[in-house]
Amino acid sequence: MGDDGWKTQPKLMSADVKAAVVKRLIELKQEQAEPFSVVLHGGEPLMMGKARLDALLGELRQSLTPETGLHIQTNGLLLSNEMLDVLAQHRVGVSISLDGPISVHDKFRVDHQDGGSHGKVIDAVVRITAHPDAKALFSGVLAVVDPESDPVAVYTALKATGAPSIDFLYRDGNRTNLPYKKASVDSVEYGAWMSKILDLYLADEAPPVIRILDDMIRLLLGGRGIKEGIGITDYGIVVIDTDGSIQKNDTLKSTYSTADRFKSPWSVLRDRLSDVMENNEFKSYHVSQRPSSATCKSCPLLDICGGGMPAHRWSAEAEFDNPTVFCADQKLLIGRMQEWIGDHKRAIA
């Protein structure tokens, strides 16, 4: 959405930065009672190559507790059998970006020559599902919603991969810059699309896990959500860039330039992560995950919706003090869930 901060970043972390990352995570493990997870993403994290990735993951796994989650989000294009062996050795969970069948996936995910990547991604999925450690390795696929696509075709294609779970993400956008193919803040293109996925999911006798739907249904039934952007659970997220600088959640890049940056620069080369998190600016950023809008605070569905991702609440006029741009979509989807729950209760009464 126009952010060009990546242009000033090195393409790869230097040896000094990687050593500092490991050092700071060891410190955090010693200073923080709550567990945390480390996610390698990008860009494309596999661009660091097998040897560099092996060395980094080896240091992280050796230095952190066995319970610390190590994960990687990849487009799958460099996910060779050799790379899978490295990831399996260090007990890393792998999520692969795949939006659906070729007509959906290749609509946006193209290379520098405008060639589609669907075939190569499917090859990667086949390799990981055939790996001896597939059950531990493969976390699932991540699909960005295209409201113009056919939900039946997308659900069928993603289920056919054998992925243990599917994560659906709404496309980035906000109240000033509307998401792709969303006509207005009051329109429900995304909610209608996800409602069709919900119907397919709940009617399927052997469905994959769809985390966003599971979380919302669990919350409706009085349980606890575990996914960022759903419910009112807080998450302490920081991003370490390739130069070692420490930033806020990088989804904020989609709102305005430098929205993801702290006013006081932080870097793993000189700062402890606990010092960052004890700073008032970080505390304000952490609190901002909870919606501030009066509309959200008075909404009976707040415990389910959670106000959505902060980046989706942005507007040029009121900044983050708005309901999510997907408010109408979420109300529609939650309403469909309530219908399903009501029907089920009547069926067993």
Automatic annotation (TrEMBL):
The name this protein goes by in its record: Radical SAM core domain-containing protein
InterPro entries for this protein: Aldolase_TIM (IPR013785), rSAM_sf (IPR058240), Sulphatase_maturase_rSAM (IPR023867)
Domain of life the protein comes from: Bacteria
Species assigned in the record: Asticcacaulis benevestitus DSM 16100 = ATCC BAA-896
GO molecular function: oxidoreductase activity
Alphabetized SUPFAM superfamilies for the sequence: Radical SAM enzymes
